[in-house]
Amino acid sequence: MSALLNDAQPIRFYRPDYHVRTPEMRSPEYVQMSTAAAITLGLVAGRMHRTACTHCLNLLVTYPEGCRANCAYCGLARHREEARDYADRNFIRADWPAARYDDVIARVKAGADKGQFQRMCISMITHPNSNDDTFVLLEKWVSAVPQVPVSILSNPTTLEKADLVRMQRMGADIFTVALDAVTPAIFERTRGKGVDSPHKFEHYWRAIEWAAEIFGPEKFGAHLIGGLGETEREILEVAQKIRDTGGYNHMFAFFPERGSLMEDWPAVDRGQWRRVQLARYIIDYAGGSFHDMRFDGKERVIEFGVSGQKLEEIISSGKPFRTSGCPGKDDDISACNRPYGDSSPTDILSFPFALARRDVARIRRQLAGEDVPAGL
After folding, report:
1. Sign of the torsion angle spanned by Cα atoms 120, 142, 130, 179
2. Which fold has domain 2-263?
3. Which residues contact 219 (CB under 8 A, 6 or more apart)?
4. 2-49, pLDDT tens digit by residue?
5. What does the alpha-carbon distance between residue 269 and residue 231 come to, in Å, rounded to a whole number?
6. What are phi and psi of 47, to 5 degrees?
7. Which residues 6+ apart lie within 8 Å of 299 measured at CB?
8. Sign of the torsion formed by the C-alpha atoms of 224, 339, 98 and 110
9. Bond preceding residue 28 cis, omega within 30 of 0
10. pTM for this structure?
11. For 348, which of 65, 256, 328, 334 is 20 to 30 Å away at the CA?
12. Residues 6+ apart with CB under 8 A from 137
């Protein structure tokens, strides 16, 4: 993904490449957004490889003092306070420039995105003001742009059950929990006491249970990251548990974030990732079950629990290997396509577009254990 500078934009818009200190840039007046969203809105000139846009307007609450958590894999982690400005930090491999929230809404209402956005997502961080400001952003959006549904990417550490009830009543369409690490031990090592961070596995799981109760089936989900040290069996067992409660699994491939505590940790193994993507799709959308799958001695998937013919049809469709997230107009294709959020265009791990035959052919080779790139 490349963003080209264009100083002629009429909006007051701060781009990380300028390295401007902006202490007044604070939610709810300001929000950060993904570079893909900024390109789709026309705020940054640029293009995205093999796709014209992102279908989800990913917004992030922002404060000069930043996030108070210290997740080992995250570009927003507290330990990166050496960055000259919080807005300079990258997040899921992309810059997150900032703009006035009112200006963003005005551009969406004026059709600057040419009607591409099928969803908006408010991403919370660990900050004393994050809860209150999320309510302000939600209320303003639902009032101004009711035709574009809102997802909440939550911070369970600061939320109570009553907060979820309030969000749902205010018009939030989907509630998601970035569980990320799928075992208590890995969570503790990457998100909890092991890295001097406040998050707790049981709090995150409790938020998933609240979401199931308050938002209901098909209206909540969890983010899971493949490649943090878990086995394929472990991540798929959690995926099945979430599906059994009525939720969906939004998969992310671990790809080391520059400047994070895990920047030297290897990216997820390609074969492992493809098997997990395929099995997750079968669990979420093809009527399959983790309990019908078989694993080898290293807890790798060796049978997917469906017939050979059905498996071939699923692989050939390419859908399991697309970015997974909150839905848009299509039931099983994510509006949140996050272009190149977990990989580069030269070796695509989550495809932000429909796969071509050559893409599927490369994925078949990866499933077979060959170390080949699936990109460009």
Report:
1. negative
2. TIM Barrel (3.20.20)
3. 173, 174, 175, 211
4. 433 333 333 333 344 433 335 578 999 999 999 899 999 999 888 889
5. 11
6. -145, 155
7. 231, 232, 233, 234
8. negative
9. yes
10. 0.91
11. 328
12. 27, 28, 31, 59, 61, 101, 122
